[in-house]
Amino acid sequence: MTDTRDLDQVRADIDAIDQDIQALINRRAQCAQRVAEIKMSEVAAAHERGEADAEVVYYRPEREAQVLERILKRNAGPLDAGSVVHIFREIMSACLALEKPLQVAYLGPEGTFTQGATIKHFGHAGVYVPQTTIDAVFSQVESGECNYGVVPVENSTEGMVSHTLDNFMDSSLKISGEVEMRIGHHLLVAPNTLEGSITRICAHQQALAQCRHWLDKYWPHVEREAVSSNGEAARMASECQGVAAVAGDMAAELYQLDKLATHIEDYTNNTTRFLIIGREDVPPSGRDKTSIIVSSRNKPGALFTLLEPFRRGGVNLTRIDTRPSRTEKWAYVFFIEFEGHLQDDKVAAIVAELEEQSILLKPLGSYPQALL
């Protein structure tokens, strides 16, 4: 049927719809406040029963994942899945902040892709605290200064971030979730910078590696300097003459830089995966992933012995990596990720079998898989 309404009529419809949306969002916020009241009363009752360790858990990763999964399934367009998830993520973030704003540490400074991943996962209503190192992110969460942390763990072209894996060896923290970010690198300079005046190109070493071929082709004779982060490189470009930075859109906007070239990464599907770290175990969401650290005895077929239970159990492995053991020369520990939750009977049986044949097995947590 042809829509015969004129522009004023359509705009009036939009205004009416906006009013309905606003009323429904506020109704949702009131429900969130009621949830907080119920949680606080339950914890107060637990304290009266002598359960001194009981505390209010405001953020439930598995619950949020289930809500977003349902939103995706019923999305009929014309908005795409990413836009719809983004809108609802922000609504959920604002509602959660009415209960209690989350304190989240991330590998900074401002303008990094890790900050972008933090906002993508938690929305804009949280309190985000940049840290200078991955170690510091872990420390902030372990001490209770922050509720959660966000750290990079894997890039689709450059592989695993070993420093993140090493921190899990000694930490008691759990993985609470994961975020995937499409990484788009740009060559950024301060306004009015001439190409001929550039003497240094700065970025994190991972970013320089992800743009190596492009830089070799177009800027082969310009010095490249690895710095602590792309955000730091952008800051340097904004303050130092002759410096260009390899960084993303957030850094360009934050430091008001111009783009000499866009999307200079060597591979168009360049993606980085980030982990959300917290102190609590996450219940099943129905679409989960589990990470463990395991070390076997140094003997022929050791790796096959570790992996065989997954084959027999029909559990799909999504990642396996190795790191040197800190206790034995030329010995290694395996970081294994697989689909399923530690509370699943099939997964629990596999983990029990691995415990019998390994010298170390440390579950790092089960958590909802990244949606988009």
Structure description:
There is one protein chain. Helix 1 (7-48) packs across helix 3 (81-99), helix 2 (61-74) runs antiparallel to helix 3 and helix 11 runs antiparallel to helix 12 (345-357). The two termini are 35 Å apart. The longest helix has 42 residues, at 7-48. Among the domains are: 186-269, D-Maltodextrin-Binding Protein, domain 2 (3-Layer(aba) Sandwich), CATH 3.40.190.10; 282-368, Alpha-Beta Plaits, CATH 3.30.70.260. The strands form three sheets. Strands 1, 2, 3, 4, 5 and 11 form a six-stranded mixed sheet that branches. A five-stranded mixed sheet has the order 8-7-9-6-10. A four-stranded antiparallel sheet has the order 13-14-12-15. With 372 residues, it is of the alpha/beta class. The radius of gyration is 24 Å and the shape is globular. Strand 13 and strand 14 (332-339) form a beta hairpin. Helices cover 42% and strands 25% of the residues.
